[in-house]
Specification:
The complex is a heterodimer of chains A (95) and B (485). Chain A has three helices and three strands; from the N terminus they run H-H-E-H-E-E. With 95 residues, chain A is mainly alpha-helical. Chain B contains 16 helices and 18 strands. In chain B, helix 6 (304-313) runs antiparallel to helix 7, helix 10 runs antiparallel to helix 11 and helix 13 (426-439) packs across helix 15 (452-465). Chain B is elongated, with a radius of gyration of 30 Å. The chains are: A mainly alpha (95), B alpha+beta (485). Chain B: Its EC number is 6.3.5.-.
């Protein structure tokens, strides 16, 4: 399987990464290289092997349902580019 | 609404906000109504270097839900990243579950319609999975910018997905109501729809009978049962009209506008998000042991369906009564308490009082049954006095009224204080009957001439003379005996 430049542009757009035409070409080569690596791995017979969702075969640790965080808004907002009335301000977005 | 030979197919996705103290992946409070961003921690803000840690309480809610709908609680489920960019989602992805959800299958029994046309059906569930809520964007004008409040970001949600099993807005609403009652019943969601704790998306499509499924449109974020019904009805009609005019339905996400009563397109399939799900490497698989499931099962209250069956089988209630009395845990608990105090023999009478006089009165004053001025114990006391003939049904209403207004601590006290005890002494009633017969010769003559109505007039006269307190059966019997003799 190999990608087209259009697919690379789409992936870049989805990830909100700006790419020049030259970068599309080099990225295409890199990604195709990764794909051929995956193709090699896919040749391995994995029948009967349970798929893993994580590299470590461990279970998620859980925390008790208690409130442990206090209000640190002032500290967090001190480094925010713009705030008002306790809100973070961002460029207007309406879908 | 199977208008003009079209079949309607509806599936529903519900986001139920889980009643935990803290967020699903952080120790921030989930309390509603706080000042903006005071309940948004470093994890909720997605500051660099933070890691999510899963809340045991949220998982427990999911287990309870799975148990209550007869579903499989997955021994192993996996959290995934759902990627999209929006300012109220600072990480750039929502932590959700995708391929391996925590709850699989199950079903919710619904009752649709009333009277002769009432019917039951089971809506099958596909899955339910745990995920985090996003923050809130405020689009009022902040110098041409949007304001972001991340208090809600990371609030635990259970997304509950049905099979496309409903075929009318009535069925969709019946399902949503049954699910709403259930999540409140088992205490995993407060069900507050105004605050957004329980919101529904409806997938609607139409087809000619026997044909494959039509293209669906998804109506987003319906936060009342009325809007759910209105939006679906509008959408069905719109799709049928479009198809009959030779048009095609395009897969789309739509919003319902309560003011116009119409749905309008938010985005089409071309603009559909490409979420690029993948397992979240920050979280290990969620493992739920059999033992944890069993332990949780023991904490569940008797479920609505089991209670309904018990009301029918052990108390001899009709299916209609049993359904009405298990519509919410508060009503069921109240009724149970009345029956426990008044005895199972008075169950039917208790059902009539709870669904009749009490519920009418609660409705009228917009009161919740949990805050009823007449307690279950007081109502049981009243019912016991009807059962043992101390008072008639009519007088009982007077006593109920007095209890409602706080004019007495118990039915016995009201009866005593207001002298409402029924006259059952045959001698006393006979005396009243004789007086009435002597004073109403005209009625007596009419009755003897074959006018049945005259008899009722005489009964009325006796009851009046007794100030409503004579035992009606005894009055009837004595009158009949005397008139017949």
């Amino acid at each position: 399987m190999s990608l087209t430049p259009d697919q690379v542009r789409r992936i870049a757009h989805l990830a909100r990464i700006e790419t020049s035409e030259a970068e599309v070409q080099t990225t295409l080569e890199h990604l195709n290289g990764i794909f051929s690596l995956i193709e090699e791995m896919q040749a391995v017979n994995t029948q009967g092997v349970e798929p893993m969702a994580h590299a470590q075969d461990l279970a998620q640790r859980l925390r008790d349902d208690v409130v442990s965080e206090s209000d640190r808004r002032a500290a967090f907002q001190a480094v925010a580019p713009e705030t008002e009335a306790g809100l973070y301000l961002v460029p207007k977005v309406i879908e | 609404m199977s208008a003009r030979n079209w079949e309607v197919v509806i599936g529903i996705e519900t986001h139920a906000q889980l009643s935990t103290q803290s967020k699903i992946f952080s120790g921030s409070s989930t309390a509603f109504g706080a000042q903006p961003n005071v309940q948004a921690s470093a994890v909720d803000l997605a500051l660099p270097g933070v890691l999510p840690v899963l809340n045991r309480g949220a998982v427990e809610c999911a287990i309870k839900f799975g148990l209550s709908i007869g579903a499989e609680v997955a021994a192993k489920s996996v959290f995934a990243r759902k990627n999209y960019f929006y300012p109220d989602l600072p990480k750039g992805y929502q932590i959700s579950q995708f391929e391996l959800p925590v709850v699989v299958g199950g079903g919710v029994r619904i009752q649709v319609g009333q009277g002769d046309k009432a019917y039951e059906k089971v809506v099958r569930l596909t899955r339910a999975h745990l995920e985090e809520d996003a923050g809130k964007s405020l689009h009022e004008d902040f110098h041409g910018k949007s304001g972001i409040d991340l208090n809600r970001a990371g609030t635990p949600l259970l997304e509950i997905v049905t099979e496309p099993d409903m075929c009318s807005s009535a069925e969709a609403v019946a399902y949503a109501k049954a699910l709403h009652a259930l999540v409140r019943w088992i205490g995993i969601c407060d069900g507050n729809m105004q605050e957004g704790s329980f919101r529904c998306d409806a997938n609607v499509s139409v087809r000619r009978p026997g044909e494959p499924l039509g293209t669906r449109r998804e109506i987003k974020n319906l936060n009342s049962f009325r809007f759910l019904q209105q939006a679906i009805d509008y959408e069905i009609q719109w799709q049928i009209d479009t198809l009959e005019d030779g048009g095609k339905i395009q897969q789309a996400t739509v919003l319902f506008d309560p003011d116009s009563g119409e749905t309008r397109v938010m985005r089409t399939k071309e603009d559909a998000h490409d979420y690029r799900y993948f397992p979240d490497p920050d979280l290990l698989p969620l493992v739920i042991s059999r033992e944890w499931v069993e332990r949780t099962k023991a904490t569940l209250p008797e479920l609505p369906e089991a209670k309904r069956q018990r009301f029918m089988e052990q108390l001899g209630l009709s299916a209609y009564d049993a359904t009405a009395l298990t519509a919410s845990l508060e009503v069921a608990d109240y009724f149970d308490a009345v029956v426990t105090a008044a005895g199972a023999a008075n169950a039917k009478s208790a059902a009539n009082w709870v669904m009749g006089e009490l519920s009418a009165r609660l409705n009228k004053e917009d009161k919740d049954i949990a805050a009823s001025p007449v307690s279950a114990a007081q109502l049981a006391g009243l019912i016991a006095r009807i059962a043992d003939n101390t008072i008639s049904n009519n007088i009982a209403k007077k006593v109920f009224e007095a209890l409602w207004n706080g004019d007495g601590a118990s039915a016995d006290e009201v009866i005593e204080k207001q002298g409402l005890k029924q006259i059952t002494d045959t001698g006393a009633i006979e005396k009243l009957v004789d007086e009435v017969l002597a004073a109403n010769a005209a009625n007596v003559a009419e009755y003897k001439a074959g006018k049945e109505k005259a008899f009722n007039a005489l009964v009325g006269q006796v009851m009046k003379a007794a100030k409503g307190k004579a035992n009606p059966q005894q009055v009837n019997d004595l009158l009949k005996a005397k008139l017949g003799g």
